[in-house]
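Hey,

Quick one before I head out. I ran the complex with oxa(dethia)-CoA overnight. Inputs first:
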Amino acid sequence: MGLFSGREVSILGAGMYVPERIMTNDDLSKMVETSDEWIRERTGIRERRIARDDELTSDLAYNASLVALKDSGVLPSELDMVIVATNTPDTLFPGVAPKLQGKLKASRAGAFDVQSGCTGCIYAITVAVSGIACGLWNKVLVVGAEVLSRIINWQDRNTCVLFGDGAGALVLGPSLSGQGHFISAELRSDGARSDLITLPGGLIEHPASEETLREGLHYVHMKGNDVFKFVNRLLPSFLKKMVQTAGYQSDQIDWWLFHQANLRIVEGVLRRLDVDMDKAFVNLDRYGNTSAASIFLALAELFDSVNLVKGQKLVLSSFGAGMTYGAILYEM
Ligand code: UT7
């Protein structure tokens, strides 16, 4: 269960884009009752990027996609599918993916969004890989993009210190000999905990009204400490089993790329897996939690900064609203 079959699928290129504006912890401490020390100690975050007022999620997605396409040598006209994982689409419809497909002039490609909390990245990549493995598609652009700064209550210190804006993209295609390939994926959900991370207002359950505005239902609501416990309890055994199912032990994984939400979560999960922290790639200190973009940003920076060797194994893993969670195993 969970192993990919059919054609082997490779990462052909990667890219990322973050807005220029940096918001530091000190900047935040002028807005809410918090401090650089509290944020660093409890989360590991030092700063995050904030999109300009005129920047949309589709713009961030477009900028990251141009880098990934250039890196891969694939032309927009060769793409069969454009998939965007996001929880902050410019509008509920049209989705970000069709807008991106149009901007790129990827004239042969279909396009759709994936919304599955922060785990949207893992879901989107898995769908892309599956579509290529079975022969339905050849070249797929898969993107994670978020402008979370527009759905954050900047007066709520429980959430506003955590999130940031950014986008990352991958171009995937069938492996040529000698290229890396996706080995397995596990996608899970525990809908019984759907109350932990929500944006309740403005749609069907609570249509926009003066009351939803007054109560701030159009902002992210999160029971942070419950999420923290949920993840620490569940993720280590889930990941251990996921890796074993593919025929490996945790200590055979060269790089762990976790959802960049909280350094204490990364440390806690690795400790329970008995794996050293130097096997984790961490960039949450500079970008905060960018939700469905987070794994893409980590991958793009890992590829840029580390000389990965053929045969090395990477685990990508995320969790988020739903509560969804999942992981992917890739061999270089
Ligand atoms: O992608 C979505 C996934 N979400 C997550 O990964 C979030 C997971 N959870 C976390 O990362 C952590 O639970 C948080 C960083 C959100 C909070 O850390 P915590 O250690 O769980 O703190 P807490 O919620 O138990 O709060 C401890 C105290 C509280 O004060 P009292 O009640 O003890 O007086 C909070 O009010 O810290 C207070 N607090 C803050 N203090 C200063 C909460 N936020 C802040 C803040 N600055 N920004």
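The longest helix spans residues 224-245.

Talk tomorrow,
K.
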